[in-house]
Design a protein that fits this description.
heterotrimer; A alpha+beta (645); B mainly alpha (266); C alpha+beta (254); B: 266 residues; mainly alpha; 3 helical TM bundles of succinate and fumarate reductases; globular; C: 254 residues; alpha+beta; Ubiquitin-like (UB roll); Fumarate Reductase Iron-sulfur Protein, Chain B, domain 2; 2 domains; five-stranded mixed beta sheet; two-stranded antiparallel sheet; 8 helices
Chain lengths: 645, 266, 254
């Protein structure tokens, strides 16, 4: 497998400029002769589809939701980073680049990250011009906040709904192109496979989720913007419908899957309340600015709290352990996400967790309320406190909040080169779906930035090269044998799912898989646990294919069938994830191997042996996948050990 | 977009028509009330006012046609919008509205006045038609010409006498041999008093005026909303104002039959 | 863990758009009060699925009140009637033991039922496509701070822009009017300077499309505002009425 990242030569600041000049252009008069398929309509997909259509290409865009506006980008709360330096506090493209590489624990590609930082400034301009109502200062200029422990204020935001507003901006651009007839939108339509013709991605097979109709679509190029795979954990902050099917199907057709073990766990989510839980809700990280994280020092006290015999406000200061402040005096409660998450797990594993399940820690605002007054706290966090009360029924002004980490974002994804093209020619992957510029850990407010950078400002240029090279005739007939063959495979798979008629529901398999992954490949991983998971998952998969029960038929809305197809892919993908976690014998970013930690329990990287992108090649259902390595060269940034002491 | 089509062929445009004609009709209702209240100033004042209106001649017809056009447009757009709204709503089931926050029920369910605009409106229209029959076309039965008061409809016409002081005198019925029946003006005062001595006339009148005021209590504030002249800062005042005006109008109109029945106006 | 509830559900079942549909009754037993409403339905569906019966189809995605997918009328109220709350954020602690809960899809001709509680809301997308955008090409834009926006305007625009497009306003309205939805978009873009060049065009086009899609008109009952999970104000409807009128006067041909 050839993993040539095609990084342009020259100084890092000029690579993108030079590359854009070197890229072949499609003759403007010919653009209308090209057809591009975009799968997914989130920030990356919608912005790409709109931008490609503006350029003159014919675009078909697909999403499983009933409207492109509902993609899960909409749920991002905090904000979007951009190196605008509007606050005059010393920010620059280089600083954003540096912070992102460092935050990613030196597992990302320098050239990609630098380009991301460069185009970040254009994103804000673009979104403002679309009418996105960013927060403003009284002078009418854009407001910023500092986010996720960054030393500069570079985060732009629209209340706690930045993702929503940016997505609606991209959606409006997409809607305009749909209205103009340049984009044909397929809603409630799910990708079920990618079609390769002569080794190039030339189309997809989809299912209309209302009628059950299976159809083939051919194009000159296929763009996957299908998001991350966090739902492999069953419980995550992802939407119910988020799935790995598109990227996993592409992987099974030959695309390399890179770094699947890199998952981000967000420290401030509302704890699980019971078995019925269907998803987890994130609370903005900004809460850690004023809230203090603690658990009781002794498990006995925690036990009493769990049983409801003791109210947390009656726990004396001497009995409390503000463990983040104790262990990280300089960053305190504001340590990065992975550190905060891991420490929560640690104290709960010691039996000091405080909710009935034992998996929760306090985020206490009592001191903040004493210091600033309840009204100030209400002003800053009122909407979050309301949301917390809506979900838990508990008033966080009177009782400390309880929080626990939850899966939030996945840094891994399909391997792509500098052009965002996977190792399959013609298959482009953007947004969270690719293995991205976040390395082993993503900084707060960078996901929105990357999705829009890929869709608005990178892909529309880089796809031109591939299209120009292939020429307008390079689009196969959707009735060709490759297409009909793939469609037959899809159909037989659906028939199989419907015909098992066993005892268990798709959800029960999903939940069981999620438990395995969360326990063995979650916040902390170790060799024996991962090996156990790799043993257990195929067993579960086997049971799935023999004991699944999907009621109903294909020819109508059948949500059990949809879920079954997704769970089937998660059951295969979960194993790959564990394999990747097993091979990566180091701790870095979101990947923490218990065997590899410092004496103080901090993550210990192994730059000598693991400074590479781990890309997996599918070798058939009966064989183990093969690992390929793209080594990472750091010319600009010196690799150092992160320290938040 | 064509301006006329933009008004007549869109829902928003038709709401403008509703609002503007509604405002015009409201103006008429106020003027009419003020005129009616002259009944308390005695027969001469009311009849003289009526005569002056009649003497306007062509202007009266302009006003009549204007009113007719406004009422026509108001009803036309109401019917059109209601038909469309029924179609839009589709088939719905009667389910008891029971929000988890019970106290919010009143905010969620459309208020009586708002729900019944088309019904109150149509009944008011029917009443207006009947009201014209009463006073403009002078249908005898409505004017209490039955029972003890025999005599024909024409006797309600007044006779004009130029006295020394150049005042008009009103006589009903006309003395034998004097003047020509039906010329000049009618004895509106007598018609009011006779009419309101008939119980069903009073009943219908009170119901219609009541509905008119229910209609106004919603319409007067919705009008501002439809024309884009309302917001939360002063919206409450508009809502309260609409209700207050509706009640005042109700009291004003109702005072007349009440006074007649009480024998205060004979 | 909260308390446990036993409930009776009366749920609308409909196989497809052409089917006439009917209510069916289900028992929901052992429902934890900490569950969300949709998690309660998940539990019922798991039971149905285990019995080999077809689960109740309903839309939901983010389950945190922002995607606007969930769409069900609970006891006669879209989203159930808690202030500023979508069905997915509504929790079972608001219901009492032994209660019968009626669940229906959005009812509106412009939102045909596709199955059970799932409706087709693409009419909203088509209204957006008619004019709910600022025509800017990617890249051809000035610096974001080149155009200051007064904070008050930006805040008010944000109040309108929060709309999640769920359609509860239509379902609550006795006329199935989409005014609140359309007004939110028209107002948002009319309040920011970037939306000015197409201001009139947008108002005219979106209103026309709204009518074409078969939504009703506004009778100012306020039901939409009361059920809106983002508490979008009726003021925006007044604003759109104004926008449309001004647009007709400025751009209307004779």
């Amino acid at each position: 497998m050839n993993l040539d990242a095609k990084i342009p030569s020259g100084p890092i600041a000029q690579k993108w400029d030079k590359h854009r000049f070197d890229l072949n252009l499609v003759n403007p008069a010919n653009k209308r002769k090209y057809e591009v398929i975009v799968v997914g309509s989130g920030l990356a997909g919608a912005s790409a589809a709109a931008s490609l259509a503006e350029l003159g290409y014919n675009v078909k865009c697909f999403c499983y939701q009933d409207s492109p506006r509902r993609a899960h980008s909409i749920a991002a709360q905090g904000g979007i980073n951009a190196a605008k330096n509007y606050q005059n506090d010393g920010d620059s493209v280089y600083r954003l680049f540096y912070d992102t590489v460092k935050g990613g624990d030196y597992r990302s590609r320098e050239a990609n990250v630098y380009r991301l930082a460069q185009v970040s400034v254009n994103i804000i301009d673009q979104c403002a011009a679309q009418g996105v109502p960013f927060a403003r200062e009284y002078g009418g200029l854009l407001a910023n906040r500092s986010f996720g422990g960054a030393q500069v204020s570079r985060t732009f935001y629209a209340r706690g709904q930045t993702g929503q507003q940016l997505l609606l901006g991209a959606y409006s651009a997409l809607s305009r192109q749909i209205g103009l007839g340049k984009v044909k939108m397929y809603t409630r339509t799910e990708l079920l496979d990618v079609v390769l013709v002569d080794g190039q991605a030339k189309g997809i097979v989809v299912r209309n989720m209302v009628t059950g109709e299976i159809s083939r679509h051919s194009a000159h190029a296929v763009v996957l913007a299908t998001g991350g795979y966090g739902n492999v954990f069953y419980l995550s902050t992802n939407a119910m419908g988020c799935n790995v099917t598109a990227t996993h199907r592409a992987y099974k057709r030959g695309a390399a899957f890179a770094n699947p073990c890199y998952t981000q766990i967000h420290p401030t989510c509302i704890p699980v309340s019971g078995d019925h839980q269907s998803k987890l809700t994130l609370m903005s990280e900004s809460l850690r600015n004023d809230g203090r994280v603690w658990v009781p020092k002794s498990p006995d006290v925690a036990e009493k709290i769990r049983k409801g015999e003791l109210h947390p406000s009656n726990v004396t200061d001497a009995e409390r352990d503000y463990y983040l402040e104790r262990k990280y005096p300089s960053f305190g409660n504001l340590v990065p996400r992975d550190v905060a998450s891991r420490n929560s797990k640690e104290v709960c594993d010691e039996g000091r967790g405080v909710v009935s399940s034992g998996l929760g820690v306090y985020l206490d605002f009592a001191d903040a309320i004493n210091r600033m007054g309840e009204s100030t706290v209400r002003e800053r966090y009122g909407n979050l406190f309301d949301m917390y009360e809506k979900i838990t029924g508990s008033n966080a002004y009177q009782n400390p909040m309880t929080i626990y980490p939850a899966v939030h974002y996945t840094m891994g994804g399909l391997w792509v080169d500098y052009n965002l093209m996977s190792n399959i020619p013609g298959l482009f992957v953007i947004g969270e779906a690719n293995f991205s510029e976040h390395g082993a850990n993503r900084l707060g407010a960078s996901a929105l930035m990357q999705g829009l950078a890929d869709g608005y400002f990178v892909l529309p240029y880089t796809i031109g090269q591939y299209l120009a090279d292939g020429g307008p005739d390079n689009r196969p007939d959707p009735d060709s044998s490759e297409f009909t063959g793939t469609e037959d495979e899809v159909r037989s798979r659906i028939d199989k799912l419907l015909s098992i008629k066993g005892k268990r529901t798709p959800t029960s398999f999903h939940r069981e898989l999620g438990q395995i992954i969360w326990e063995k490949c979650g916040m902390a991983r170790n060799k024996s646990g991962l090996e156990e998971a790799i043993r257990k998952i195929p067993e579960l998969r086997e049971e799935f294919w023999s004991n699944l029960n999907v009621p109903g038929e294909n020819a109508s809305i059948n949500q059990s069938l949809e879920l079954a197809g997704r769970v089937a892919d998660f059951l295969e993908f979960g194993e790959l994830m564990c394999r990747d976690a097993l091979q990566r014998e180091e701790s870095c970013g979101g990947h923490f191997r218990e065997e590899h930690q410092t004496a103080e329990g901090e993550a210990k990287r192994d730059d000598e042996n693991f400074a590479f992108v781990g890309a997996w090649e599918y070798k058939g259902d009966q064989n183990e996948p093969q690992l390929h390595k793209e080594s990472l060269e750091y010319e600009e940034v010196k690799m150092t050990q992160r320290s938040y002491k | 977009m064509n301006l006329i089509k933009g008004i007549f062929n869109t829902s928003l445009g038709r709401k403008y028509i509703m609002a503007i004609t509604g405002a015009g009709l409201f103006g008429f209702i106020i003027a009419h009330l003020l005129g009616n209240l002259l009944v308390f100033a005695g027969p001469a004042a009311l009849n003289e006012y009526a005569k002056k209106l009649h003497d306007l001649g062509p202007l009266l017809w302009v006003a009549r046609l204007g009113l007719l056009a406004m009422a026509g447009l108001h009803i036309w757009s109401a019917l059109k919008l209601t038909t469309e709204n029924r179609e839009a709503a589709g088939k719905r089931h009667e389910v008891k509205v029971d929000p988890v926050d019970r106290h919010r029920r009143d905010d969620i369910v459309a208020r009586f006045a708002a729900r019944t605009m088309i019904f109150s409106g149509l009944i008011i229209a029917a009443f207006a038609f009947y009201h014209l029959a009463h006073y403009t076309w002078k249908v005898p039965q409505i004017n209490g010409i039955s029972g003890e008061f025999k005599g024909d409809f024409e006797t309600y016409y007044v006779h004009e006498v130029d006295g020394d002081n150049n005042q008009t005198a009103f006589v009903t019925p006309l003395p034998q041999g004097e003047g020509a029946e039906g010329e000049n003006a009618s004895d509106v005062y007598r018609m009011v008093v006779n009419g309101f001595n008939v119980s069903w006339v009073v009943g219908f009148y009170v119901v219609a005026i009541g509905l008119l005021c229910v209609h106004l209590s919603h319409g007067l504030s919705a009008m501002f909303q439809s024309l884009g002249m309302k917001n939360k800062n002063y919206g409450k005042w508009i809502d309260c104002g609409a209700k207050a005006v509706a009640i005042l109008i109700f009291l004003g109109y109702i005072s007349i039959p009440v006074a007649v029945l009480a024998g205060f106006v004979k | 863990m909260g308390k446990e509830l036993n409930l009776k559900l009366k749920v609308w079942r409909q196989d497809n758009t052409d089917d006439s549909g009917r209510f069916e009754e289900y028992d929901a037993k052992g429902i934890d009060t900490d569950m969300s409403f949709l998690e309660m339905l998940d539990v019922v569906n798991e039971g149905l699925n285990e019995d080999g019966k077809e689960p109740i189809a309903f839309d939901s995605d983010c389950r945190e009140g922002i995607c606007g997918s969930c769409s069900m009328v609970i006891n006669g109220v879209p989203h159930g009637g808690q202030q500023g709350t979508t069905a997915c954020q509504l929790h079972m602690r608001h219901f009492s033991d032994g209660m019968t809960i009626t669940i229906e899809p959005w009812r509106a001709s412009a939102f045909p039922v596709q199955r059970d509680l799932v409706v087709d809301r693409t009419a909203f997308d088509r209204i957006q496509q008619a004019g709910g955008f600022v025509s800017v090409r990617t890249g051809s834009v000035p610096d974001a701070n080149a155009t200051p926006v007064p904070k008050e305007d930006a805040d008010l625009a944000m109040d309108a822009a929060q709309c999640i497009g769920c359609g509860a306003c239509v379902a609550a309205c006795k006329n199935a009017s989409a005014m609140l939805f359309v007004a939110a978009k028209v107002s948002h873009l009319s309040l920011v300077p970037q939306g000015q060049p197409e201001r009139e065009r947008r108002a005219l086009a979106m209103v026309q499309k709204m009518d074409e899609e078969g939504f009703g008109s506004c009778t100012v009952t306020g039901s939409c505002e009361a059920v809106c999970p983002k508490q979008i104000s009726l003021d925006f409807i007044a604003r759109m009425n104004r926008e449309y009128g001004c647009a007709l006067i400025k751009k209307g041909t004779v």
